[in-house]
Each structure stands twice: as C-alpha cells, then as structure tokens.
Amino acid sequence: MTVSIVVNELESRVTILEGEAGQRRFRTTDEAVAFVLKQCPELDELVFAPGSFHFRHPVEVDRPLRVRLRTGAVLIPSDGSIGLFRFDADDCTLEGPGIVQVVEFVPGQHVVRFEGDRATVRDLCFDVTTDKGDPNRPLVLIRLLGGSSRVVENVTFLPNVGVTCVSAARGKALTLSNNRFTNSQTTEVTSPTHVQRNCHRCIDLEHEGWAQVHGNRAEGLGYPGSQPVDSFLHYQYDERLHHANPEAGHLQVVGNYVEDLAAKAYVRLRGCAWFQIVGNTFANSLNEALEIGDGGIVVDSEGGDGEGRPSTDGQIASNQLHNLARPNSKGVFLVLRSCIRLSVLSNQFATVMSENAIRVHPQSTPYCTIHGNTFEGILSIGWGIAPRSAIHCAPATNARITIGGNTVTSFYGKPGDTPLLRKEGPLLGKVNLTGLADRKTGAAPTATTKIEDLSTNCWNE
Asked: Fewer CB within 10 Å, N side or C side of the chain?
C-alpha cells in the first residue's frame, strides 16, 4: 500500500494520505510517520486523512505531538505488529473522530501506549473484529504506564475475546469519563440474549493513585456461562510498587452505568485504599456461573481471598444495583471480603434472587457500617426463589459491625419471610444491630446483649 504526505509548514501540520496524491510517497504508513517525525522538527500535529493505514511496526514518538484521525480514517496494526504508537514524551494526544481497528490478535499487544504526563485519548473508536483472543494474555487497546494528569474521554470501545480496553499502572491523576464499552457502534444495544462481543476487562488499574472513573457506560458484553467478562473495573494494589507510588488508591467511581454484562464482577477492588463508589447503576448480570466471591462489587485484599493488604477507608453509597446474581446462585450483589473502615450507605438492592444481597466476611472486615439501604425483590413464591437473607455474616472473632436503618421488602413491595440478617456461627466482638429483633422470640438486643448468647441466627428490623 502506498501512502503520501502533505506538509503545511505554516501550521506545523503534516497530513498523511492514502495513495500517491501527496508531496512525497512511502511504501508503508509507519515508514511515512517515522520520516515525518525525523525530518519535521517543528511538527505539532499529524493528521490522517480518510483511508485505511496499516502499521507493520509501532512508531515511537519522543516529543509532544497531536495525532488526529479525520472521519473515515482507519488505523490498523497488521502483519503481527505489536501496536501503532509508543508515546514516550509528555503532552501527547490521540484523537478522532476516526477508527482504530484491530483485525489480528497479538498476545500482550499494546495498540497504543503512553508513558508521559498529560496524555490524552479522546473522540475515537477502537474496534476489535477478531474473536481469537486469549484472556490469559490479554491484548490492551490503551496502555498508560506511569505519568500523571492523563485523560481518556468520549471513546467508544468495541472489544472482543481477551481484550482489555484501558490499562493503567503506577500513575497518578487518571480521568476516564464518558466512554462506552459496548457491542455496537450505534446507541442501540444488542438484546442481552444475543450478546455479540466479549471482553476481558473494560478498565484495569494497577497501583494507580487518584483515578476518577466518571460517567462511563458498559453494556452488552460477555458470553453467559462460557466466556464471562472478568470485570468492568479491576483495581490491584501492588506492595512491590509502594515506594514508587505510596499514595496508590484514592479511587472515585461515580455516575457510571453498567448493564447486561456476563461478568464475574462489575467492580473488583484488591487492596485499594481510600475509595468511593457512589451514584452508579449496576444492573442485569448475565453470568450463569457465579460462585462465592463473585458479585456486583467485590472488595478484597491485595492477593484476593483475604490475603495481603486489605482495602481500607471506603464508601459505597447511593448506588442502584439490581438483578446482579442469577437465581439461587452463590453470587451476591456486594462481597465484603477484606476491608477496614467501610461504609455501605443508602444503596438500593433490587430484584435479589441469589442467596444473599450482601455477604460480609467480618473476620477481615472490621469497622463496617451497613445503614439506610433498601433490599427489594427478596422473595417470589411463584418463581420458587427464596433467598436466605439480605445480609449474610460469616463467623468472626473480631467483628466490628454496625447494621441499622435498612428496609427489606418482597417483589412488588409485598412483605416477605426473608430475614434482613443471617449469621453463620458466632460473631464475637462489637456488633451493633440497631433496631433488629430476634426472629423466634421477637426480643431486641440491648447494650449489654452479646450476639453469641442470642437464640437464633436470623434477624429482622
């Protein structure tokens, strides 16, 4: 394929054209871009005109540059290329409205990689047309390594098997806003029973600090039962990187809309300190094989299963969560596996058909408050679904839990027999069950009552 360039020295801009109409011709796209970067030291903007441009090798960019894809421009890594661009400098931007298309899965590939401060990706579409991926060696569409003040906004991701859309590690002040992770370029989402696209993770954050995930949409991804999405958002703390970024954490997940994912978890936090998950809608998990430890939101330790540094100082508030676990499955809406000083406030848990809505492991979850939440759709006799309780507490010897001000109703607001709280074995420690009454005796705990002395494991408000 022949490409050519048009140089506009007055505006410090070079335009790359498909074909021979430009001032100078090249055999490949990456050859043309490399020439422009070397021979045009005053270049500020690189523009791709409408056409298809194949990259056989990624191009390294070592100075501030704006790369813009016009409508109709399509950039394609081909012939086993591990990517398009490697932006090593500060103040680099990649923007649309063109398309980056991935037609060949290369394990471990980073289609676009940034390593500088103030990196920006916006107004693009990433379209992965191959379904031959491997989730054990994911392909990453946007990789951000280190740096600060990075932005990914207004990007549409059409992922596929084994693809992570955005992966960021060891950086600070990342903003992900108004992006779409979906199975369709149109605003019409394919029916949940005909999900067409898969994905490994939409957002993968490793030891990031001060990240903001605001106003994004994810919908219609994953194959129920066979190839579930790992998560919409995965956060991983890494003790080995603590010296490089001691303030990792400080995560905000606000105002996102996530629905119709066949996912193991919508949000999974491992060792995240200082986090807020507020005002999101998480709905309709299509995964048919949820197990204990899977759920809508999973708060865990660095190593998972309660091992390593716990997640600390978090708030999960004012979220709308419905139908996140399949009927009678072990999955739940919220898993509190290893966290310290956590508040779960004013959330709505609707269409609860699994065994529980919240599963608490208080042995590794001290200083936890669950207050002012509503649990709806707890029981439906006609469907033969009867959850064991809204909240399940595993045994603990150091519990520090406060539960109060919550409301439980059945489908369509009818009273049900499902208790608010069920404890599994003893809960030794400071457990404040404000306003709760024993299901058998009707007695309420007093300030001096020890929960291990009570006659039943089931409690109502």
From this structure: N
Which pLDDT tens digit goes with each residue over 50-72?
999 999 999 999 999 999 999 99
Instruction: Identify the H or E element spanning 393.
Output: strand 391-393
Neighbours of 438 (CB within 10 A): 18
Chain centroid to CA 372: how far?
26
Mean pLDDT of 286-291: 67
Taking Cα atoms as reference points, which of 343, 347, 349, 200 lies closest to residue 261? 200
Coil, strand, or helix at residue 364? helix
pLDDT: which is higher, 289 or 84: 84
Q: Kindly provide the residue ranges of all beta strands, DSSP E only, lying in 56-171, ordered along the sequence.
A: 59-61, 65-69, 73-77, 85-87, 92-95, 99-102, 110-114, 120-122, 125-128, 139-145, 148-153, 156-158, 163-169
Q: Residue 351 in contact with residue 375, Cβ under 8 Å?
A: no
- Residues in Cβ contact with 303 at an 8 Å cutoff, skipping those fewer than 6 apart: 270, 271
CA dihedral of 223, 225, 227, 231, whole degrees rounded to 10: 90
Q: In this predicted model, what pLDDT tens digit does every residue of 378-407 receive, in sequence order? A: 554 445 555 677 888 876 767 788 888 888
- Token digits of residue 220: 């219609």
Cα–Cα distance for residue pair 250/335, rounded to 1 Å: 20
**Token pair recorded at residue 50:** 């409408």
Cα dihedral angle (207, 209, 215, 218), rounded to 10 degrees? 0
CA atoms within 13 A on the CB side of 459: 25
Distances from the Cα of 354 to the Cαs of 92, 331, 459, in angstroms? 47, 7, 18
CA 240 to chain centre: 23
Looking at per-residue pLDDT, the higher value among 160 and 443 belongs to: 160
Q: How many CB atoms lie within 10 A of CB 254?
A: 17
